[in-house]
Amino acid sequence: MEEIIKVENLKKSFRENLEVLKGISFSVKKGEVLGIIGPSGSGKSTILRCISQLEQVSNGSIYICGERLVENGQYTNKEKRHEIALKSGLVFQNFNLFPHYSVLQNVTEPQIRVLKKSRDEAESLARELLARMGLSGKENNYPCELSGGQQQRVSIARALALKPQVLLFDEPTSALDPELTGEILAVIKELAQEKMTMVVVTHEMAFARDISSHILFMDGGYIVEEGEPEEIINHPKTERMKAFLARFSSY
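RESULT FIELD:
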């Protein structure tokens, strides 16, 4: 099976004395969903930001769809980095929609600017994706007129519009009221059933167990446990993992 993401000995420091990732390695194959769980500050979101080039790695290697983004801390050239960036789409926890753009424009404009599509082609796909997200009739609304769940569905549609090989979700429900969480989890589950390759950082334990092909438990910049969802969530091996799961009343 084709390897979409391969990470080797990834390290990231923000200052000399603040090492957030301390040499982690993992891979994600086509059609798989990697769930990443762990306490705040464990390095989960930093992994996604390194893969999507929002952060520059301190050392280690990242390959996307078999192409070298960075190897032993050395990045490929600027043109190749841009090409590789288009292979992944990041869905932020706080939506990151353009407030002065309508819903339709938020999904259309990136296609025109990044993929150089015609406006008609971009709008056609945008309307199709918005309908799929249950947002037909909201095309002319602005983000401030939508619920948090609706805004997050727009951001998922925007990411999908750029036809990425892998979708990265950074705690996609953390900014939502509990009653809105379910609608976003349902969208991600549907994408998983369609074999969309995804990496999902989440604090929803039952969701991580149900959706993931494989789970990483992060703590202190290290991968403490990894394996099959049922084994990791229901039969943790380390005391650290047991203590973490004990914080959740049910999963």
